[in-house]
């Protein structure tokens, strides 16, 4: 069975709609066949009754008995043949061919993880999530007891009992309030028993000493929803239950800075400004770029309106159909492996591959105009689409801290284009410098990863916050350090 990693890309999730259409069509064909069969059997019943009535009326002379005998021999054999036919065999084959294209239990688990991430980072409770109320905005969707029960089940599997408890009580509430549909629930395998059973399992697993303070805290939060202190304490408690230990001091501050800057845009000092950049390359004298200075150290700028809608469309069309799940380098394994900290699909727009297109070279040159850094030996452009609650946990884009390997093609700078707006969530956050940027289609971030000595700057570590609503597309370009000898020379150490 192929793994489509449906939870990893909102775009690829669209394929399921096509599959669903095919399956519904097949089911309709099956229903038609069954209906034809019922009609046929009904007509046979009529015929058989008729024959029986005729036979009863006749006396037993040979000539009039013969039709009945013939009927009893051939007609019933015929009916037996019909009974033995399996209706829907062709449809079953069609189903099983498509089955490998459908989401797996792993996909659903990964989707639940995405929703859990949204709950945790944006502080959304289960009942609001089920009602479609996210960060104070009412969305046009709601979850039923089915989905919330599924979430609870997977959360229990992942031993996330605190959130599972919230989920299972929401699932129970939804179920109890929907009595009219209990039969439907039962038919699809969800009974009140299974809900209560899961509830008990969750309560059983919540250790008494942590559940009590948490319950008290929740009650207090209800009474003082505005209290930032309570909110912090609650998050700390939840994290301690989740991770088993409390993060300390600075680490905790970074977590809060991350949560806060995911929820609303964080901007740095007031001495920063906007300008038209007409100097980075000669071409910019003709076509200056709108530049917003976001941070001086590390140097981070945001270019506005650098891509047209047509360019964005062209880049996404190149990527569509070629997206593959992101993998990460893992020190313990020889091969790159799936990474729960990076839930996206991507494609490299290699200039030498099938995906080369004039827009790709134009984009490459644009990154040179934006950075005045040499393009040579840098990695190809990478187009990325995020999944359900898709995120990229905190990381730095450089490979070594101290520039210890001068031959390593380390990434001196990153250019990151936003290829879509994201209605809710999906900000790029630099927690250590209290900075976040909300995605806006057509704009691009540029920052240096390495300092003037070629050492990685840990202050550039950054994250992509979980996407709550929308399909987030970005395109990244990492510039290689080596060819920048004359563009950005090393400075002598002071
Ligand atoms: O999507 C984002 O906002 C950040 C992505 C990122 O950091 C990366 O791809 O290296
Ligand atoms: Fe990054």
TrEMBL record:
SMART domains: P4Hc (SM00702). GO terms for molecular function: iron ion binding; L-ascorbic acid binding; procollagen-proline 4-dioxygenase activity. The keyword Phosphoprotein does not apply. One of its GO terms (cellular component) is endoplasmic reticulum lumen. The keyword Ion transport does not apply. It is found in: Endoplasmic reticulum lumen. Residues 377-481 form the Fe2OG dioxygenase domain. Keywords: Dioxygenase, Endoplasmic reticulum, Glycoprotein, Iron, Metal-binding, Oxidoreductase, Signal, Vitamin C. Pfam families: 2OG-FeII_Oxy_3 (PF13640), P4Ha_N (PF08336). It comes from the Eukaryota. Its EC number is 1.14.11.2. Its cofactor is L-ascorbate. Belongs to the P4HA family. Catalyzes the post-translational formation of 4-hydroxyproline in -Xaa-Pro-Gly- sequences in collagens and other proteins. This is procollagen-proline 4-dioxygenase. It comes from Drosophila guanche (Fruit fly). The lineage of its organism: Eukaryota, Metazoa, Ecdysozoa, Arthropoda, Hexapoda.
């Amino acid at each position: 069975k192929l793994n489509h990693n449906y939870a990893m890309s909102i775009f690829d999730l669209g394929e399921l709609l096509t599959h669903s259409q095919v399956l519904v069509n097949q089911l309709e064909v099956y229903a038609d066949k069954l209906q034809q069969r019922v009609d046929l059997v009904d007509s046979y019943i009529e015929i058989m009754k008729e024959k029986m009535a005729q036979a009863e009326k006749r006396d037993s002379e040979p000539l009039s008995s013969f039709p009945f005998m013939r009927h009893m021999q051939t007609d019933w054999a015929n009916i037996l043949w019909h009974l033995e036919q399996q209706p829907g065999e062709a449809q079953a084959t069609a189903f099983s061919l498509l089955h490998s294209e459908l989401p797996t239990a792993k996909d659903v688990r990964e989707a639940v993880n995405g929703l859990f991430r949204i709950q945790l980072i944006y502080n959304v409770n289960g009942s609001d999530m089920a009602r479609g109320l996210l960060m104070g905005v009412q969305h046009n969707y709601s979850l039923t007891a089915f989905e919330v029960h599924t979430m609870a089940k997977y959360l229990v599997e992942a031993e996330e009992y605190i959130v599972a408890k919230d989920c299972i009580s929401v699932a129970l509430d939804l179920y109890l309030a929907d009595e009219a549909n209990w039969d439907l629930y039962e038919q699809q395998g969800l009974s009140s028993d299974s809900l209560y059973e899961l509830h008990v399992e969750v309560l059983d697993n919540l250790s008494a000493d942590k559940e009590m303070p948490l319950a008290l805290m929740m009650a207090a939060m209800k009474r003082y929803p505005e209290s930032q202190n309570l909110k912090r304490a609650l998050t700390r408690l939840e994290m301690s239950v989740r991770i088993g230990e409390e993060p300390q001091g600075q680490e905790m501050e970074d977590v809060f800075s991350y949560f806060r800057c995911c929820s609303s845009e964080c901007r740095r000092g007031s001495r920063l400004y906007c300008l038209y950049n007409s100097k980075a390359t000669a071409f910019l004298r003709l076509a200056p770029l709108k530049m917003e200075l976001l941070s001086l150290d590390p140097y981070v700028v945001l270019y506005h309106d650098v891509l047209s809608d047509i360019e964005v469309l062209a880049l996404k069309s190149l990527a569509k159909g070629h997206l593959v799940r992101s993998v990460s380098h893992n020190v313990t394994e020889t091969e790159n492996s799936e990474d729960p900290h990076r839930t996206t699909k991507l494609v490299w727009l290699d200039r030498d591959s099938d995906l080369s297109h004039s827009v790709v070279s134009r984009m490459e040159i644009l990154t040179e105009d934006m950075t005045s850094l040499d393009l040579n030996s840098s990695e190809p452009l990478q187009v990325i689409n995020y999944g359900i609650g898709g995120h990229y946990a905190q990381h730095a884009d450089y490979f070594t801290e101290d520039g210890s390997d001068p031959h390593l093609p380390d990434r001196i700078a990153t250019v990151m284009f936003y290829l879509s707006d994201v209605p809710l969530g999906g900000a790029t956050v630099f927690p250590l410098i209290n900075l976040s940027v909300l995605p806006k289609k057509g704009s691009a971030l540029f920052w240096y990863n390495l300092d003037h000595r070629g050492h990685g700057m840990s202050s550039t570590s950054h994250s992509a916050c979980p996407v709550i609503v929308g399909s987030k597309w970005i395109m990244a370009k990492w510039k290689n350090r080596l060819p920048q000898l004359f563009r950005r020379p090393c400075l002598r150490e002071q």
